[in-house]
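Bumping my old thread because nobody answered last time. Still need a sequence for this structure:
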């Protein structure tokens, strides 16, 4: 079973490479019992979207 540190590591890796099936299943199991990591994963998407918007500003 993943701990929170391993889970957040996988969440950031998921944005750089494809996770293996085993890694995805482990992450889903962790999310099922850890609301903090579910929230963290959503926040990472929000932050990345904001960073992309900022980087693509031309003015
Ligand atoms: Zn967690």
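Sorry it took so long. Here it is:
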């Amino acid at each position: 079973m993943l701990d929170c540190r391993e889970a957040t590591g996988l969440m950031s890796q998921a944005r750089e490479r494809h996770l293996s099936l085993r890694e995805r299943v482990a992450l889903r199991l962790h999310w099922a019992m850890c609301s903090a990591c579910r929230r963290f994963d959503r926040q990472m998407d929000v932050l990345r979207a904001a960073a992309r918007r900022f980087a693509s500003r031309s003015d």
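The pocket of zinc ion is lined by residues 4, 7, 30, 34, 36-37 (CB under 6 Å). Let me know if any region looks off to you.
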